[in-house]
Amino acid sequence: SNFTKSNFRGAKFKKANLSGANFNEAILGCVGYFLSYDSFGEPSNNVSFEEADISGANLSCTDLSAANFQKAILNHINLRKSKIDKFTNLGRKWQLIWTLQNHGAESKNLENADLSYADLHGVNFTEANLKAVKALDTNFFNATLTGACIEDWSINARTNFENIKCDYVFMKAVYKDGEVVYEDRRPSNPDTFFQARDFEKLVQQAVTTVDLIFSEGINWRAFLASFQSLQSETGEELSIRAIEASTNNSYIIKLDVSADANKAQIEKEVYARYELELKYLQGRVYEMNRQLEAQRSLMLDIVKTMAEKETTKEEYNFYNQNAQVGNQAGKLQDSARQNSTLHNYAPEQKQDIVEAAAEIQKLLDQLSQTYPTTTVYEKSILATKAVDEIEKKPEVKEKLVKALKAGSAAALIELIDNPVVNILTPMLEALLE
User: Fold this and answer.
1) Cβ-count burial of 68 within 10 angstroms (0-12 exposed, 13-18 middle, 19+ buried)?
2) pTM of the entire structure?
């Protein structure tokens, strides 16, 4: 049956079964049920509203003794001055709402209570603990909230704070020696109080703000990427209101969202995207470190090769010093060095080696103006760049390969004056492979 907005004031229901009926916004005030009880004290003719929709109904001044409201929809019902007893089946949530409507909530500890869709207009919540309370679509019209704690409570754009009475509130509740202590007063100055509509402005900010908490620090590149992707892919009106740095390298980022936005979903989505971006960046760092380690390993191999070749070269010079021509103390700067290095080669082979050495010398002189050669790492970079340039010039590469085939890399390098020649030697030999 549909009794939406019907007026039943003063009606008499006896043994009525109204299960499933729709009494949305109906006036049921002062309804009588003429209950009677059997010899065991149990009600014998209770009225049932099981699974009925009584949203917005006025049940004030009504005798609800032994009434059955199991699975009924009771949003915004008025239970003021109604009578209930131990047989009334209202459920835990609406039993609490009945208590608040009839006895108030001054100094009550309502932490984690579900007050959503409740009509709490005019209720006194002075110094009540409303921490983590759910108050979605709740009517606080003309209620008093002075001194209450509203830490982490859940409200939305349809929570009504019109004509609220509130001088100050607290934003944090902590337990000390078993007692609840309120902290973080707003306004912060204990000598100041909210002016007209100040409290509404404060809670309105909470309605349109999502707080993202990063308690173990934050990777700003990962957050920026996740925030921008959420903006572009979902079309949500998101903007960053504030960034608050807390202790132990933790941060709170406040996002402005629309009043109708699903804040829980936005918070969940940002965190999920942030974790994905974080894993991606961590993977890139791992790959960069792996490549750097491989490069260091390669440099170590080059250094070992250089050391081995240097040892072989010194032994060769020691055992053949009487057969060598010219000064063996270092690299020669004139034709005498060329003659002493090339005396065992045919004239055509000598020419190929000398021309190739000249090309390499010219290339290294040019690159040395751009690339430093102070450390082994810097020398390896210059040597690598030199090989890249040779690869780009087929005529130079052909001349170099011809020279290497005619003689040896050692003979070629002997004619070049540059600090990278020892690193360059194994790289040039690789051109023959």
Assistant:
1) buried
2) 0.52
